[in-house]
Structure formats: structure tokens, C-alpha cells
Amino acid sequence: MAARTSRDSSGVTRSRAPAKPRLPASLDLATADDHGLEDESTFRALGFVDLDLSGQAADGVEFTQCRFKGTDLSGVHLDAAAFTDCLFESTNLANLRAENSSMIRARLTTLRMTGVHWINGALRDVTVSECRLDLSSFRFTTFSGVTFQGCNLTRADFQNADLTGVQFINCDLTGAQFSQATMDGTRFANCVLAGVGGVTSMAGAVIAHQDLTTLSYTLAGALGIHIEDPAGE
Hints:
Layout: E1 6-7, E2 13-14, E3 28-29, E4 42-44, E5 46-49, E6 57-59, E7 62-64, E8 67-69, E9 77-79, E10 82-89, E11 97-99, E12 102-109, E13 117-119, E14 122-129, E15 142-149, E16 167-169, E17 187-189, E18 206-207, H1 209-222
Parallel strand pairs: 3-5, 4-7, 5-8, 6-9, 7-10, 8-10, 9-11, 10-12, 11-13, 12-14, 14-15, 15-16, 16-17, 17-18
Antiparallel strand pairs: 1-2
């Protein structure tokens, strides 16, 4: 198995680009009647297009080489689910709850993911682009080769997550929580970091210089440092 991360000459953990999902040249179309979510069900090489699967629940379901487009998965409850080599586009995952679940080689683009709870799971080789992830939670989840780009992550919760080597690019992380997270080599570039929690857990993170000013005030507050302007200014 390839190493999750490597280190540069200065000893800083270096991020790696997520591997792309491996999809077949063609997919059969899924239907709501034949492909609803049931315990221990397996779906392979299927296109879930414009389906309403909202509010369903299943344990041990597996999706392999599947594409989701325009599908409603809001309010779905999953336990021990697995998504491998999957593509998500313009799909609704709001308030989806997944525990002990994995996502490997996946690409998520322009999704509504407000309130998603992905707890005690694993994300490996995942790219998340232009998604709304406010109020989401990834507590106790392990990330490897993951990039968030252009995402709304306001008040997202990464408490106790392993974010080693994760990249946050052009993301709004206002009020996000990183308490007790592992952040060796976690990279922030052109991100909004106002009011983030657990800032003292950011040891080993790499932050673009233009993002540092806002974070420095949060860090000072966490350490009980009072910053005052010179008199008369």
C-alpha cells in the first residue's frame, strides 16, 4: 500500500493529490423501485440519476463504480456503508448520517451537504469541490489524500478527526471546530479562518501567509493573549 503522505526536506508533511475514481465506460441506470436502499445491498456500475432516495436507511450497503447526478439522498441513514470509485454531481446529501462508513476514490462536485454527519469513518482519495458543507460533522473520521476546494464549511466539526495531509483551498471555515484533531501537514490556502475552534490543535498545519492574520487573533484569544492597538489609533 502506498504511503499516505511524505515529508519534504524541511520535515513538513507533504499532501498528495487524490486518486481519481475508476468508472466504467458505460453505466446501467438505477430505478427507485429496483434499487432502493436495503441492508447488505450491493450496487455496481449503476447511474443514480434524478432519483428520490431521501429518508431511507440501510446497514452494510456498498456502492462500487456508481454515479449520482441530481439524486436526493437527504436524510438518509447509513451504517457501515462503503462508496468506492464513485462520482457525485449536483446531488442532495443534506442531513445524511453515516457512521463507520468509508469513501474511497470519489469525486463530489456542487453538492448540497448541509448538516452531513460522517462519524467515525474514513475518506481516502476524495475530492470535494464547490459543495455546501455548513454545519457538517466529521468527528473521529480519518482522512487520507483528501482535498476540499471552494467549499462552504462554516461551523463544520472536525473534532478528533485525523486530517493529516488534507488540503483546504478557497474554503470558508468560519467557526469550524478542530479540537483534538490531528493536523500534521494539513494545508490551508486562501481560506476564511475567522473564529475557528481548537486552534491549539493545529500543530503541524501549513497556512498560507495571507490567511495568517485572521488566525493569529483567534490563536491569541485561545492562549489568553490580549491584543490592543497603540494609543490614539
